[in-house]
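Weekly puzzle thread! Below is a chain. First person to post its structure in token form gets bragging rights.
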Amino acid sequence: MDLKSISWVGNIYQKFETMCLEMEEAMYQCSAPDL
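Winning reply:
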């Protein structure tokens, strides 16, 4: 693998990770009772 494809995969992974974190946060906020 060359450097370009490595950075491309890293970029995709980073976006995916951010998306997962946002979803997790939203789910937590929705399911958690308001304190």
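Puzzle host: Confirmed. Bonus trivia for everyone else. The mean pLDDT is 87.
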